[in-house]
Amino acid sequence: METIVSIIFSGVFNASTLFLVAAGLQVVFGVQKVFNLACGSFYALGAYFGIVVVKSFVAGGFPKPLFIVPLIGAGLLLGFIGPIVERGLIKFVYDRDETFQLLLTFALVMMIEDVIKFIWGTSPQTTGGIDLIYGRINLFGATLPVYNLIVILCSLIIAALIGYILLNTKFGRIIRATADKKEMGEALGINMKMVYIKVFTLGTVLGTLGGALVIPATAVVSEMGVELIVLAFAVVVIGGLGSMKGAFIGALIVGVLKSVAISTYPELEMLTIYIIVIAVLVIKPQGLFGGSKV
Amino acid sequence: MKPWQEILSLKSTKVLILIVVGLLFLGLPLFASQYVSYLMLTFFAYAVMVLGLNLLFGYTGLLSFGHAFFMAIGAYTAAFLTGKFSILYMEVILVVAVIISSILAALIGAICVRYIKIYFAMLTLAFGMLFYTFLLKFYYLTGGDEGMRVLRPYLLGFNLSEIPKMQYLTRSYYIYTLVILAILTFVMWKIVSSPFGLCLKAIRDNPEKAEYLGVSVKRYRWYAFIISGAYAAIGGALLAPAIGQVDPGLTYWTHSGTLVFMTLLGGFENFFGPLIGGVVYIFLQDKVMSLTTYWRFIFGAILAFLVIVAPGGIAGVISSLVKKEKGGE
Question: Nearest residue on chain A to B132, judged by CA atoms?
């Protein structure tokens, strides 16, 4: 029982950050129809920047337990690269073939990887176990780090927020309308340029926030971006491209599966995930929730 | 039209240019440094791969983001046969690589060709990564992330183990690889200019129309996928003895991206474009890497530029320049 709880718990923790990145991928794919390979790179940027902010927060003599505030701030602040990337690169390929859009985001992956190496070098970095400041908690007989619980909670709140925005606000309605039919949005006099900038920024922020939140509980390495994109990719394929519900369920499936595999047959960790991805693509290429847009 | 352009547009002239380029490549080790010859050798191996990739990408309109899978199949075939089974005949390695990759491509292709565009790209990426984790995790079989050594193969039955390594690579093995590249280029040329190749182009431009005209779209895509996979495996098998060590990184998705990059750099709309892209990529990478450790940033910027401004690649730019000059006459 104890081990089962901690396995599932660590799976849900995986899922919570995976969901954020995958949600960023989905919202951009839903509206712009661009599959953004660079969402993993945004995640890595968020992680590195998160470390810097947390360390200077602690060095500045602020109370340690509050480190999560500047951490979230760091994730949100990094959203500024969204408009730059969208206006500087992505906007040129909206009318182009999907394959070229994919290649452009691949170019972005290459560039961001070196930007990270340039600023932070190649050696792994950590926040030095600052997450343990919140201690551990006993749940169903298993000892679980409280910080990880907070991250899961954050992720749930963000998921609820996204759901609220999409369903109940004007911006959300515009997003859903343009995801269905871009021409309609334009015909109704919506400023598509602004919508694209906002949506891409939202996608970026979700990625950087995911990276920032995960970082106190793990270490950053320069490959984390290209590794995560493959997982996020698995999430959206299983859940269905463009679907938020799909990102949520997909993240849970991939996250839990990953932690179950690690604790039982570590050799099979990613193998099982890819096999499921391929099975989903073969049996139901639109994914579990494909067809329901955004 | 200027006289030189008239000459250039003749078919026999084109063949002549090819022969001259081929002879230049052949004679290169005589006057270039061993290092340059070695880079050229890796280009020959990559050239075979991108020739195959472009049958899918340029001619059939399917972007594979997992083509490194097949090149890794070829490379690991070489490592297994030489290292574990002591089969050192290069010809045997190539034949086995073709057989294994064709079978795998037939199976995987049967699934993949049901989809196009982004789904095709994703599915191929997933298969590539599946193989990557297999290579990584089953270390007792594959050596894990350390990979496997590739022993020096016999060429045409000759045991050349007495020759110093670089001399073997830049002379004997160099010529061997070049000849295979020449043969495979000729074969690919025949494939794309055959009725089969024309059908592929018709499928790329308008699949519905092709289907309407009685072309079995999926079947033709499947054939293209198999040929393309076999080419990549031959390229991988040729690359393996040159690098001497194979590791799972060969099939990582970013390496598949590199193959697409080469194709796009040279120009996917032109038969020789990917080859131009391959040679430019390898020598440019070598140059940029010697100048800065941040070569990926520069290459990323180049790729972004290509996608946005010059999707036709180098070949596309050249042909549009030639056309412009012709138009000015």
Answer: A271
